[in-house]
Design goal:
binds copper (II) ion, about 500 residues, globular
Amino acid sequence: MRIDRRHFLEMIGVTAVVAGGPGRVPVLARESAASAPADPADYTIRIGTGLVELAPDHIVSTTLYNGQFPGPLIRFKEGQRAVVDIYNDTDVPELVHWHGQMIRSDVDGAAEEGSPFVPARGMRRIAFVPKPQGFRFYHTHVRAGADLNRGTYTGQAGPVYIEPRNDPGAYDQEVFLVMKEFEPAFSRGGDMAMDMLAPGVPIKELEETGARADEEAKGTPKGYEVGYELFSINGKMLAAGEPIRVKQGERVLFHVLNASATEIRSLALPGHVFRVVALDGNPVPTPADVPVLWLGTAERVSAIVEMNHPGVFVLGDLSDDDRGHGMGIVVEYSGPTGKPQWIKPKPFRWDYTRFGKTASVPAEPDQTIEMLIVKHNAAANGFNLWTLNGEGFSMETMTPLYKAQEGRRYRLKFRNASDDIHPLHLHRHSFELVRVGGKPTAGVIKDVVMLGGFQEIEFDFVADNPGRTLFHCHQQLHMDFGFMTLFDYV
Ligand SMILES: [Cu+2]
């Protein structure tokens, strides 16, 4: 029997927060008129401190949405206006950002764009028309700086699914997976994978620019990085939660979100391949099979897995250390039992262009804007300072340095003179990848994209959503220390 959870939930007419089933993200359903005040919101989000039981002996205290991690899955209907009440039960102002949606600046949830804060111990009611359809998410957008109890280091993240007007529904189960680390601490070095992006050839000129910046720092060691003690999928360390239960022959649609503040994540399921059907919630022109998913901070991948290899497996991160500290979830076929198996996949490079169109090119832009990214070692009280074309973003003045004119198509060309991978994010718009590491492509629509160390990337956006628009690296340390800029519509 084909079970479509979405239609099932609609059939039974849920009126409260519904437990999502084993290993699942609970759903925040529309409130019923009966249980709400005279003028009810469609959805209510409460920001507050709470506990997450990652495993019986690993219970963390952090800031959460509705007392849980991940925050409840919010299902919107594309084009249908939604009223959302946000209550802030903490002592500090907060912001809820609707990542990947094309909505107004005042409700987008970024102070830099002019969205008001949700006051401490206060509330804010917002209304917007959710779009576009597909897998989005919501998360805090406050600056953390040196405070590891703020921003995306906390548990303030949850999935959003905007229901399309027409649902293709060619799957048997839909499973949301939110990958997230807890218990952050500053350190002097990182251990993150750096060589997983294709084509992966560093550009000499960018290496030289990076070397000059290192010289200017006069041998200063690199700034602080963040590491984590505990790792989880859907708020549970590997084997601490319920497994994902599947049947042979089923097609399972996974919606994977990397809700990390700073890390790149990977995911593999031994004996199975992922057919990638959407990136950042947008269907790809060329669905393709891959053995491993790689996701930069805030990226999403939707992929179908055909369950044709019975057994008990670990669906987990490639990093042995991170998986060993919880970054995985068990997939269990009905029938077989035993210890979950993990088999290390062969090395695999993530290439966005394989999901693109090969025979066509994107439209010509009206204007190209080049941005050179430079790292200044430990230049901000021990933290690396980031500049775009020589400017680190000022949180004091929040001056827009770039102008966009409605209707025009802009090509942004980023040149990375650092060895770090940057998950570049544009607010309130999607963009089309044009060139990745020298390789042309078309038709891949995203809102976050990883730019490799000493490499280049080009993408286009059409200025079709007037209002201040933020661009930044989604790595919390990078965005907090300069790697941000504002576009103003003229
Ligand atoms: Cu970055």
